[in-house]
Queue: 4 jobs
Job 1
Amino acid sequence: MKSILAADIGGTNSRFGHFRLERDGTLALIATKWLPTSEAESFTRLLEQLGAGDFSLPPEEADLAVIAVAGPVERGTYCDPPYISWDIDLARDEERNSLQQAHLINDFVAQAYACRSPLGRSARQILAGEIVAEGTIGVLGAGTALGKASLIPLPDSTFQALPSEGGHAYFPFVSEREFAFQEFFRKKSGRPHITGNLVVSGRGLRYLHWFLSGEELKPQEVTGSAEWDKSETLAWFAGFYGRVCRDYALEMLTLGGLYIAGGVAAGNPDILTHANFKSEFLDSPTMGHLLAKIPVFLIADQDSGLWGSAFHGQQQLRQG
């Protein structure tokens, strides 16, 4: 039996999972460990912290490590994440020598592979539709930022995930009041470019509530208030999230289904069940009939990135 060290390195937390590839070909999750990303001065030190603790799989003993990180991956070995103070370079001696064999992938590539893991198969259905077996699968979600990826079925019954940095694209505001919010966001944040990363993340929730109510609160204070479920903030945010999902479903033609991951929706599923999410998702004068056929799912388990990394590792071990 082979062991897989799965990692999901985020701007706030770094999650690790010990998976075992069983003789029948299935994956078994043995243990997980979360570490604060900012408390490590480098990726090497993060691995040292993991190895020095009580985690069941020392990094150097893993048959394969699959490391998912929030940022674009270059040459399959390097990433300089935009929201982490250090980079990852598997070609550097200190990092290469601490792992027997390692693959570096984008964090939402891992989320895409998670759609075909047990977590994906048990995902909560938000909007009904008809899955096309050979269709492209889309996955997106917001936490510290907005991630996107897609998953393509291959003829040999495996899957290929395609990364995206679409969260850095401009967010499409469409009305005078939304334009006023855009200007408010620019002035208060000091950022001239208001992207999807900013609007449907926790930061966006904070600025949106500030604009609508005049209250400057932390995101968790906004969603934890007694008025949250009836608030104008929720109504706007649900519509914004639906817009992001609709545009990506059309861009990638996600006939295999659209999956939503990430801490914002996982912690606040009422964003997706709000009427404004559905109405915005279906709002297309030319493609509304097509969007109505695309099912939308929520993967709420925060270990989904680990399962996706392990699924990718499983495919690699089978092919190797």
Job 2
Amino acid sequence: MNDNQLLRYSRHILLPQIGYEGQEKLVNSHALIVGAGGLGSPVALYLAAGGVGKLTICDFDNVDLTNLQRQIIHTTASVGINKAVSAQQAIYEINPDVEVNTICGKSSEEAFEALAAEADVVIDCSDNFATRYVLNRVCVKLSKPLVSGAAINFEGQVTVFDMRSEESPCYHCLFPDLGAEEGLRCAESGVFAPLVGIIGTTQAAEAMKLLMGMGTSLQGRLLLLDVQAMEWRSIKLARDLACKVCGG
């Protein structure tokens, strides 16, 4: 790290659990963020501000006025711009030292596999089951840690699937693919603006911990948030011995 980086990240470096060595790990890390919407916005902002050296951001959608209520990485001037490109522009305003790659089209499973192979952590900020199942299969195949989050209405959830551990379940263990799930969309059901910030920021924290090898991750635990009551619940997760993806 150069002198400017040492100053920029000094409040991290002052933490004994991180120090110079931990920050150096972040600077030399690469995170794949799938989705630059409500969850992806705080994830990308905090990873960039915190010093993750390389980010690949995937999103085929363009910024819409209805997004601005919660997708805080975008501005009114971003309306009509691809979300990954808009996120890249915002990140460079915050931290020009971060390398940001953008994927602006829809990605096939093979394309996601190639992108994940180059990353140290995959962060699922998508809003549909199809993408979540694809990312899960890719991360199981490549043994990449997957930070998963979801939010709708006033409820959110976050967990980590880390297939580097023999004990870790995968996303399919928790939500088996039965071929019929459509899921709720914000456009159809609405979402409370701060909710995605809380869940996305938690995802960012988990990703950074994984990159530094620090603390205890959410592997094997699902956090559920009811933001109306502001209550968190923690549910233990176990591998499904009959899982068709991770093999139990």
Job 3
Amino acid sequence: MSKRFIVSAESTPKLPRHAKLRFDKARDKWIILAPERVFELDHVAYEVISRCDGGRSVEQVIDSLCEKFDQVGREVIMTDVTNMLQDLADKGFVVT
């Protein structure tokens, strides 16, 4: 049994080697493509995942999103990003 990845401000999330971020022209959406699995991303999820390169911490991802979406409060962004990344981590789409 593998250890569960818990997302924190210091985590440096990225997609696992078997998953790729791609734009699917047929769906007209960004997707995470993994063996026998496809996860469709909405605009906000893409903004988060596209910043998760294994080099930036969750805190840095949140900072970047706060600059882009300055009309949304930091607490809202922090909660949404952390929850989304934890959900993706639980499904095996995000690792550290």
Job 4
Amino acid sequence: MALLRQSQQLGAESSQAVVKGVSEGWNPKRPGTVREADKKFLTSLASTISPDNRERYARLMQTWGLAAAEQADPNVQVIRLKVVREALQFDKKEFSVKAGKPVEVVLENPDAMQHNFVLGKQGTMDKIGQAADKMITQPDAAAKITTCRKFRKCWRQPNS
């Protein structure tokens, strides 16, 4: 709680990093006890949470018994994709979705290594692979990567 309170004295980016660290670092199997005075603070903090941290923060609040689980949209198919620690791979090799239906891809990366996720049309894997191979050799490759923030309506990435 002290870290979350202190984070409000920092800049926006640093504050969000603290929220991310507390949310990801808390063991969800260990329910927290929150004093009455802290409940209002945590509720007010929710309005300042960045889109990247919302799901993390909601899980933390739920673990602490302060919020109900998000109500899932029954029309959205949710695909959860998690990074395999210390291996450059995901826990799923493939997934299928219904054409024309909304899809939400939730990426979880508890690893220190950055991972890429590309969603492409069927039959374009070779073209995407060649572009990735070409880009990785460029010194400014990291600056060219488009983050999920530009695709917020299509999918979200809870863990960077």
